[in-house]
Amino acid sequence: MTEAPASPNFGARRGGARPELVVLHYTGMASCAAARARLCDPAAEVSAHWLIAEDGTVEALVPEEMRAWHAGAGGWAGFTDVNSSSIGIELANPGDAPFPEPQMTALEALLGAILARWGIAPQAVIAHSDMAPGRKADPGPRFDWARLARQGLAVMPAPGGIAPPVTAAGFLGMAETFGYPEAPLEVLLAAFRLRFRQRHAGPLDATDMALITDLALRFGADGGSWRSS
Ligand SMILES: [Zn+2]
Predict the structure, then answer these.
(1) What integer pLDDT is reported at residue 125 of this predicted model?
(2) Ligand 1 mean position to 70 CA, how many Å?
(3) Which of 38, 71, 143, 178 has its CA 20 to 30 A from that of 26?
(4) Which residues form the N-acetylmuramoyl-L-alanine amidase domain (predicted)?
(5) Active-site residue identified among 45, 59, 64, 90
(6) Which pLDDT score, from 0 to 100, does residue 1 have?
(7) Are residues 45 and 141 in the same domain?
């Protein structure tokens, strides 16, 4: 006999969808307990599959087979009902704090297990801000994506000698190939930098172009290299 899920906020994955993405979030609340209460409150109508506290405690809130309510409007690599096609992980963090070592270690163990369990590629581990540019900013500029990438749990660009021309159309095209949904240049550029060029500001430049081009060429979904549907 299995225990009842901690959160009542879930449904069936639609259209036979299975998890093909992992979306990382921060809770943006003062405490993990407050976040847990909200993620389990039927009136809030939000949830995630997993919640990881600052001390590394991992709690399952919704079974991975089910559709949790963490992503909302947005898209990635052609997925438009991201909740049906993803697993959501909430990291307890008020939004402006560093992510403590025990929390990152717990996330790495959990991510490794999820990717193996569902056959998910590292390029399909994304930020909430990636799939909802302009609307969401989590897990934010303090999250260490390079650390995950070093362990094969996410991807980072390594552009080498790539030097494409700096054009808005070029950037937007490569961003779409990598997986980003359609959005204006300034919105996409901000979302891209939040993850791949943290704390950088200013107009589109050669570094942005080299980074997004490398991501698109090596990890883009257009080639069908990782998307199963
Ligand atoms: Zn989020």
Answers:
(1) 98
(2) 6
(3) 178
(4) 7-140
(5) 90
(6) 54
(7) yes
Alpha carbon separation from 222 to 93, 227, 229 (Å, rounded): 34, 9, 12
- List the structure tokens of 215: 């991501």
Last residue of a domain, one of 150, 178, 202: 150
Per-residue pLDDT, 225: 56
**What sign has the CA pseudo-torsion 226, 137, 147, 101?**
negative
Distance of CA 30 from the midpoint of ligand 1 (Å): 15
From the centroid of its chain, how far is CA 186? Answer: 20
Beta bridge partners of 90: 25, 51
Under-70 pLDDT residues of the chain: 1-2, 222-229
For residue 209, give its domain range: 168-219
What's the DSSP call for residue 88?
E
CA of 25 to the centre of ligand 1 (A): 4
Query: Any catalytic annotation for residue 45?
Result: no
Q: How far is the CA of 23 from the centre of ligand 1 (A)?
A: 8
Single-letter amino acid, residue 155: V
- Amino acid at residue number 92: A
Q: Give CA–CA dist 126/103, Å, rounded.
A: 18
33 within some domain: yes
Do residues 121 and 191 share a domain? no
**pLDDT at 3 (0 to 100):** 77
Residues 182, 74 share a domain: no
Tell me the CA end-to-end span of the chain in Å, nearest whole number. 33
* CATH number, position 113: 3.40.80.10
**Domain total for the chain?**
2
